[in-house]
Amino acid sequence: QVQLVESGGGLVQAGGSLRLSCAASGRTSSPYAMGWFRQAPGKEREFVAAISWSGDTIAYKDSVKGRFTISRVNANNTVYLQMNSLKPEDTAVYFCAADGPRFGLGPRVPSEYDYWGQGTQVTVSS
User: Fold this and answer.
1) 3, 40, 52, 79: most buried by Cβ count inside 10 Å?
2) How confident is the model at residue 49 (pLDDT cuts 50, 70, 90)?
3) R_g (Cα) of the chain, nearest Å
């Protein structure tokens, strides 16, 4: 079992920045691919970014490319999502997820992830 806890959400004006963190605990000795997803009210959960175990393979949703950066520090069992140039349409609850054991990049489909955090709210005002 792996437990995930997100933090770093909040209220920010358009154009601002936030950095989300996802701390993992439990069975963290196994390799896991990690992903960030988001869910806005009335919408389905959608893929935002994913990173492989080593961090050398990364993927992003097209609308966040160039604005968001996913990274991880395995020694600290933490994954980050740096979000810059935020837009009102980025408003959502953001979730981190773990898929594994897996060395490569995780999938973009939420249902294929094994573990989820509780989410952190990000609100971008115009």
Assistant:
1) 79
2) very high
3) 13
Pairing of strands 10-13, 120-125: parallel
Predicted confidence at residue 27, as pLDDT, reads 85
Residue 123 tokens, joined: 């609100």
Dihedral over Cα of 117, 114, 29, 37: its sign? negative
Q: Who contacts 6 (Cβ-Cβ below 8 Å, separation ≥6)?
A: 20, 21, 22, 94, 95, 96, 117, 118, 119, 120
**Tokens 């509780």 found at:** 118
- Within 8 A by CB and 6+ apart from 88, the residues are 14, 124, 125, 126
Residue the block writes with tokens 């990274």: 71
